[in-house]
Amino acid sequence: MSFLTGLAAMAAATTLSGQAALPQERPETLARLMACRSVADSTARLACYDAAAGALDTAERQGDVVVIDRAGVAETRRQLFGFEMPSLPRLFGPDGGGGDIESIESTLQSASLVGEGRWVFRLADGSVWRQIDSERVRFDNRPGEPARVRKASLGSFMLTVGGSRAVRVRRQ
Predict the structure, then answer these.
(1) CA distance 90 to 24
(2) Measured at the alpha carbon of residue 12, what is the angle toward residues 37 and 16, in degrees to the nearest 5?
(3) Whose CA is closest to 106, among 88, 85, 84, 121?
(4) Which has the minimum average pLDDT: 55-64, 87-96, 125-134?
(5) What burial letters (b/e) apply to 59-93, b meaning 16+ CB within 10 Å?
(6) In angstroms, rounded to a whole number, what is the distance separating the alpha carbons of residues 134 and 129?
(7) Cα 121–123–126 angle (5° rounding)?
(8) Is the pTM of this model over 0.85?
(9) Of 29, 18, 25, which is closest to residue 62 (Cα–Cα)?
């Protein structure tokens, strides 16, 4: 990843919090690096860049600043599909890092009947989904069966295994 791509990605990186997304200023380490552009003397500008880049490198190594590229953002958004996190759009920039993910496709790793005729589905991508409706469902409970989870109305999700009918689920 080029230095400028890393800087652009870092500018969008923030930490998750339970608060509503509020506009935030650039991290101090990035602001100091960008301030070096306004230094007129080339020797002083280079010294400024060297110092700011060193501070940025240290912050990244210590975990104070996280650098993520677009592919990393897309993968993280996919892994977080189904979780309700009000601050998630701000994590990926003002527009949420791209369009909303409407569905994910994976394969069934396992499914367990947990009582009252409800199922817990474990998918190959590591996500776990619990059935929240009381509808009976018939499906091939075999690892490797295709599974699809899609957004449904009122913030809910529907899961389909193979050719079965969809059941309402919640991410665990």
Answers:
(1) 9
(2) 140
(3) 121
(4) 87-96
(5) bbeeeebbbbeeeebeeebeebbbeeeeebebbbb
(6) 14
(7) 115
(8) no
(9) 29
Give me the pLDDT at residue 94, please: 54
Residues 26, 31, 32: CA angle, nearest 5 degrees: 155
Residue type, 26: R
Give Cα 148 to chain centroid, integer Å.
Answer: 18
Tokens of 45: 């500008």
- The per-residue pLDDT for 87 is 58
Tokens 């991290």: give the residue: 27
**What mean pLDDT, rounded, does the chain reach?**
78
User: Which is more confident, 140 or 113?
Assistant: 113
Per-residue confidence (pLDDT) for residue 48, from 0 to 100: 94
What are the tokens at 38?
């306004």
- Non-local (6+) Cβ contacts of 35 within 8 A are 48, 52
97: left (phi over 0), alpha (psi -120 to 50) or beta: left
What pLDDT does 85 receive?
59
Residue 25 burial (10 A CB sphere; 0-12, 13-18, 19+): exposed
Q: What's the confidence (pLDDT) of residue 104?
A: 87
